[in-house]
């Protein structure tokens, strides 16, 4: 059940966002982080995989072309959390999870089973106490955690998360990153966009660095994160250090000279 | 648009002793009860509307006529079957249709101000009526008695067709549709003013009366037509209720749940077109109900469209029914055009409700 991307082209208006992007297959059980500077095409790539942006090229899941897959099946197999989550709705968190379970096609679970499932999902992201709160009453971080639960609502095999930790405090960041790792270990492919390369190095099994719509580096974080790569992609002077426990630390000293 | 934190749309709180499942069951039961109360109010409105009028028929006699009792007088039968019942039924149906159209429009265009009136459907219908009344141009095969309504219907449908085309354009998102609808509203208004400028005094009076919206002289054929349109569109709206609710969380998130938003918008606008065009062409321009019905329903049962859609239909029906009663009672002996009543009396009530809800309209 691997995910393959080959020859992807994506443009918005006249601006090319992704140009002939191909990667080695993403395998189940892998936690993959997409990184790269702003405007590199990370979010667009996730949206293309989630089939919410038109593209040229081929994206296959378990050998099946995603473009040809029925919308209903796609909704069940792919969970996608967008970068910007609107929060003006008065729907409760519980309502929103039930919508996530049913909007792409009626869930096969009974009403009671859907509530139990929603409760379990909220427990996974540490938000069970928010179940009866309105989305409009959540903080940015709470909304993001609920967004992750929504993406998980149909128990997808492929999980696409756009900056899932951007609004979270340190404790919630740890919790959500650990949860993403655990979700991948359950046999899912988990792909997340992250800007924090130290976190990426700590948690990801595989790091794909995008720059100007193409893959610049792809591999185990400890192998590909080098000062040269950071200089080339982010135009910064950076050091890649190891802490006392052998974990990778990225330290940026300033713009590239 | 950000809003102040609210515990929950239904102001429920979950205590430690209740499980989430119990909480949800209670909440659903309460929403069903609220919809049932609205249905009861609509039925009460219908009866009160039939009873109210200058000739003072008591409820017992009205019920006697409606149930085919033998001792009903011929006069009472004529009043109920030929005058009061058609008006009362049409009030319910038009209110239901406009409110349903408003709810779907507000949801798919993600704008709390969207309704047939603000997007130019009503003014286009008025333009169509103006063309028939002032220029005498109408569809050739129809009897003259239907000319005005038929023209209004064609123009209203055309306006919605143009809005549909705009929504299909590349980049034709909800904002573009709304801006275009507003432009359409002004254009139709300007063309209507031009017609009024060249109209004879008689034609002008007739047109002004039509644009005020009136239930007087409603035909049974129109009632059947309106009921059919509602009966055909409502099941499709209800079938899309999960998808419509998903859209309350924004286009991107609805798409992420697997909703085909383009298709959802297209079909919702088709339903809205037929509902609004039919209602406006039969009874004239009636503002407020398409805007207030959905908001009052949302305040009452929340945003879950499985409950919101039926609640909107019933709220619109109740609003129009009570407006119809008031149109007979406000000035004794005179039947005011209902469009005036809905706007004058309804708006203060509507604003009072919104202010109590602390202004969350999104």
From TrEMBL, chain A:
Annotated ABC transporter domain residues: 3-237
One protein family per Pfam:
ABC_tran
Q: Which Gene3D superfamilies match?
A: P-loop containing nucleotide triphosphate hydrolases
Keyword set includes ATP-binding: yes
Q: Which GO terms describe its molecular function?
A: ATP binding; ATP hydrolysis activity
What sections of the protein cross the membrane? none
Q: Which PANTHER family match?
A: ABC TRANSPORTER ATP-BINDING PROTEIN (PTHR42794:SF2), HEMIN IMPORT ATP-BINDING PROTEIN HMUV (PTHR42794)
Q: Could you identify this protein by its name?
A: Iron complex transport system ATP-binding protein
Organism the protein comes from: Celeribacter persicus
The organism that produces this protein has a lineage beginning with: Bacteria, Pseudomonadati, Pseudomonadota, Alphaproteobacteria, Rhodobacterales
Automatic annotation (TrEMBL), chain B:
Q: Which residues form a coiled coil?
A: none
Which segments cross the bilayer?
32-51, 85-105, 117-139, 145-163, 175-198, 218-238, 272-295, 307-327, 334-355
- Write down a Pfam family by its short name: FecCD
The answer to whether the entry has keyword rRNA processing is no
Q: Name one GO cellular component term.
A: plasma membrane
Alphabetized UniProt keyword annotations: Cell membrane, Membrane, Transmembrane, Transmembrane helix, Transport
The UniProt similarity line reads: Belongs to the binding-protein-dependent transport system permease family. FecCD subfamily.
| Protein name from the UniProt record | Iron complex transport system permease protein
Organism expressing this protein natively:
Celeribacter persicus
């Amino acid at each position: 059940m691997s995910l393959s991307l080959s020859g992807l082209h994506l443009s918005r208006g006249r601006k090319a966002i992704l140009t002939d992007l191909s990667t080695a297959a993403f395998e189940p059980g892998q936690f993959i982080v997409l990184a790269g500077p702003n405007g590199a095409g990370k979010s667009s790539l996730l949206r293309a995989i989630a089939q919410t942006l038109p593209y040229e090229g081929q994206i296959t899941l378990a050998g099946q072309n995603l473009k040809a897959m029925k919308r209903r099946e796609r909704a069940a197999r792919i969970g996608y959390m967008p970068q910007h989550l609107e929060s003006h709705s008065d729907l409760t968190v519980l309502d929103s999870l039930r919508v996530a379970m049913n909007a792409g096609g009626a869930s096969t679970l009974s009403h009671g089973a859907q509530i139990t499932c929603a409760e379990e999902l909220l427990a996974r992201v540490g938000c069970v106490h928010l179940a009866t709160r309105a989305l409009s009453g959540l903080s940015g971080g709470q909304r993001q955690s609920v967004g992750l639960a929504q993406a998980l609502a149909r128990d997808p095999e492929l999980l696409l998360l756009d900056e899932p930790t951007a609004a979270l405090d340190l404790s919630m960041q740890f919790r959500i990153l650990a949860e993403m790792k655990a979700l991948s270990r359950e046999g899912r492919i988990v792909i997340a966009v992250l800007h924090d390369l130290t976190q990426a190095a700590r948690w990801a099994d595989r790091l794909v660095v995008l720059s100007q719509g193409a893959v610049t580096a792809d591999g185990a974080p400890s192998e590909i994160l080098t000062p040269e790569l950071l200089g080339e992609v982010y135009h910064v002077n950076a050091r890649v250090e190891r802490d006392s426990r052998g974990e990778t630390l990225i330290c940026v000293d300033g713009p590239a000279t | 648009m950000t809003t102040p934190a609210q515990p929950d749309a239904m102001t429920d709180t979950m205590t430690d002793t209740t499980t989430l499942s119990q909480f949800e069951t209670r909440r659903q039961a309460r929403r069903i009860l609220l919809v049932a109360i609205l249905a009861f109010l609509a039925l009460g409105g219908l009866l009160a509307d039939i009873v109210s009028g200058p000739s003072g028929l008591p409820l017992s006699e009205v019920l006697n006529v409606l149930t085919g009792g033998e001792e009903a007088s011929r006069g009472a039968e004529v009043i109920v079957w030929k005058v009061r019942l058609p008006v009362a039924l049409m009030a319910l149906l038009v209110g239901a249709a406009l409110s349903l159209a408003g709810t779907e429009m507000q949801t798919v265009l993600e704008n709390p101000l969207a309704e047939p009136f603000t997007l130019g459907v009503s003014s286009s219908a008025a333009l169509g009526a103006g063309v028939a009344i002032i220029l005498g141009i109408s569809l050739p095969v129809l009897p003259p008695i239907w000319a005005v309504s038929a023209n209004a219907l064609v123009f209203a449908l055309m306006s919605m067709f143009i809005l549909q085309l705009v929504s299909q354009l590349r980049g034709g998102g909800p904002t573009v549709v709304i801006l275009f609808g507003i432009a359409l509203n002004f254009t139709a208004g300007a063309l209507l003013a031009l017609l009024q400028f060249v109209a004879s005094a008689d034609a002008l009076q007739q047109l002004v009366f039509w644009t005020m919206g009136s239930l007087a002289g409603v035909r049974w054929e129109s009632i059947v037509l309106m009921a059919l349109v509602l009966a055909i569109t409502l099941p499709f709206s209800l079938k899309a209720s999960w998808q419509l609710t998903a859209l309350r969380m924004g286009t991107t998130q609805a798409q992420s749940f697997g909703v085909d938003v383009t298709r959802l918008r297209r079909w919702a606008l088709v339903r809205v077109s037929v509902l609004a065009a039919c209602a406006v062409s039969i009874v004239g321009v009636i503002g407020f109900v398409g805007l207030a019905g959905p908001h009052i329903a949302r305040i009452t049962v929340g945003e879950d469209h499985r409950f919101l859609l039926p609640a909107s239909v019933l709220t619109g029906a109740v609003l129009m029914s009570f407006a119809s009663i008031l149109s007979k009672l406000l000035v004794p002996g005179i039947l005011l055009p209902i469009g005036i009543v809905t706007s004058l009396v309804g708006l203060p009530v509507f604003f009072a409700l919104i202010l109590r809800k602390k202004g969350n309209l999104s």
